[in-house]
Amino acid sequence: MTSFPLSLGRFDHYTLIVPDAEASTRFHIDVLGFGWVREQKVNAGSAPEGEFDMLNHVLHLPGDPSRVVVITEGLTESSIFRKYLDAHGPGIHHIAYTVDDLAEAFAKLEAEGITMTSDRIVHDPLSGLRQVFLGREQTGYFIELIERTDAAEEGTFKEDNMAELANTMKSYLGEEGGRTPAPSEVVAEIEAPPEAVMDFLAEPANLPAWTAHQTVAQTAAGHWVERRMAGDVPLNVVRGGEGVTFVWDTPGKPFSIHFGVAQADNGSRISVAIPEGLGDERARRTATVIGAELVLLASALGMDIDSAVHEAARMEVARFHLEVYARPGA
Ligand SMILES: [Fe+2]
């Protein structure tokens, strides 16, 4: 049985971060027909005791009173909400979906290395309300998973949870969006001897089986190319003493990546340096895809891989294949 996709329940609520909650609320009510539910003020930590740094206006959606939008404004300069607004501008901060079992969903996401803003579930002990945020680098916005209980029904929020959840976004506040830097290297250990790994890597015909380069093919003249929408790109696979280098000879902009192969206790240690100069976003994507490719490589070399992990890797690689195919050709 595969772990993904997750079985999300209904859309629960969404949250905006704005400079002026009152003005945004008026627009939603007067122009769009949203309905007033209540105001909720919270101290997420930047206000003195007894005061607040987070103002929330909860409105119900015009067509569905059980679903709400939360319009949030930071009340202090040093509040997370004001800093977030400065870093990312006003707009949708997150969209929340219910799940029946957040612990189970959390474990699956964690096992796949999917980024969440906290390493544990935010939990209100009294009501049992549980929440987490998936990191926005994956989708461009935060996605909240929320497990509701009879004591925390639709449209209700617990202030301690709101404060704690808010504090999990701290790494997204800086100039860089506060994100951890893109990894510079991806490493995996594979239970196969280095010679076997090198033999497999160095065979271009194997690429479609384990990488996003699924249209690698041999021409009638015997050259290896990657077929792309815009034309074929020559591909060279160079086997050296310490690994295998793949070189795409895109005109004016050759691209290469090296898979280092070394002896490890239990087989081989594969290390792949993320090429420099890709930019943060592409470096991050590249690292994710290489991670997935290494899972497929391990599987192709006979390692026993959990079926859910294998399926997730296969999906990632298939998605990236479409990006590769759309890249400039020769
Ligand atoms: Fe939320």
Strand order of the largest sheet: 2-3-4-1-5-8-7-6
CATH-scheme architecture of the largest domain = Roll
- Poorly predicted tracts of residues: 175-179
Indicate the mean pLDDT: 90
Name the ligand types. Answer: fe (ii) ion
Q: What's the domain count?
A: 2
Write out the CATH superfamily name of the largest domain. 2,3-Dihydroxybiphenyl 1,2-Dioxygenase, domain 1
Give structural attributes.
alpha+beta, 2,3-Dihydroxybiphenyl 1,2-Dioxygenase, domain 1, 2 domains, seven-stranded antiparallel beta sheet, 31% strand, binds fe (ii) ion
Walkthrough of the structure:
- The protein is an alpha+beta fold.
- The chain folds into two domains: 11-172, Roll (2,3-Dihydroxybiphenyl 1,2-Dioxygenase, domain 1), CATH 3.10.180.10; 185-326, START domain (Alpha-D-Glucose-1,6-Bisphosphate, Chain A, domain 4), CATH 3.30.530.20.
- Helices cover 28% and strands 31% of the residues.
- It has eight helices and 15 strands.
- It has helices at residues 21-31, 80-88, 102-111, 159-167, 194-201, 207-210, 280-300, 307-326, and strands at 11-17, 35-42, 54-61, 64-74, 91-98, 122-123, 130-134, 142-147, 185-190, 216-218, 224-228, 231-240, 243-248, 255-264, 267-273.
- It has an eight-stranded mixed beta sheet, with helices on both faces. It has a seven-stranded antiparallel beta sheet with strand order 9-15-14-13-12-11-10.
- Helix 7 crosses helix 8 (307-326).
- The chain binds fe (ii) ion.
In short:
The chain is of the alpha+beta class.
